[in-house]
Amino acid sequence: MAKGLFDLTGKVAVVTGGNSGIGLGFARGIAKQGGSVVIWGRNAEKNAAAKAELEALGARVATAQVDVSSEQQIIAGYDAVIKELGRVDCVVANAGLPPPRGGTLDQTTKDYLTFMDISLHGAYYTLREGARHMVKRAEAGEPGGSLIFCGSLSMFKGLPGKVPYAASKAAMGAIVRTMAVEFGKFGIRANTVAPGYIKTGMTGEATGLSQIDKYFASKTPIPRPGYPADFEGIAAYLASDASSFHTGDTLVIDGASLINL
Question: What is the pLDDT of residues 70-79, one digit of tens each?
Answer without folding.
Answer: 999 999 999 9
